[in-house]
Amino acid sequence: MKNIKVLGSGCKNCETTAKLIQTAADQAGVQIELEKVTDIAEIMAYGVMSTPGVVVDGQLVHAGGLPGPDLIRQWVSE
Question: Which of 24, 46, 17 is nearest to 2 (CA)?
Answer without folding.
Answer: 24
